[in-house]
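Continuing the series of single-chain predictions for the mutant panel. This is the parent chain; the variants come on the following pages.
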Amino acid sequence: MGRRTHVRNLPKRKRPTIRARRARLASVPADSVPMDPERSGLPFAPGWGLFLLRLVFGLGLMRHGMGKWGQMDAFTQTIAALGFPLAEQAAWAAMGSEFLGGALWVLGWKTRLASFFIGVTMSVAVFLQYAQDPFEKKETALAYLAVAGVLFIAGPGRWSLDRSERNLS
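Parent structure:
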């Protein structure tokens, strides 16, 4: 058997056309080609990328939630100034959303549910609390909102308790 040559290394006139490549792929039985939607060209890419995203932003969000713990009176007054009717409950919900949601992101457990509540909390921060402030002031909340959106859509990835739980059942 001869050594296989990659298509890019062939002269242009000897390269198979796209139609020829598609025909060759169509002749391969479907069950012989593993179709894993989480695989890319790099063996570690999407699973590790989502894990790192969850870990870094989850730990940061937990830190933000813990920062509110010691200053609940001031945070409750800030929430009341926004016009929320149950300011104390809303303040505790926001703090819980940040701390517990961040912990759930780190673990990769109930990720979409946590992302939903974090997204609501960060939306209030961006569009109500920091609405009149410059971009630099709302940048962190926007980043957390974007990550919440990504994790809500993409899910937790391969390295998560959600995935382990799904594989056990």
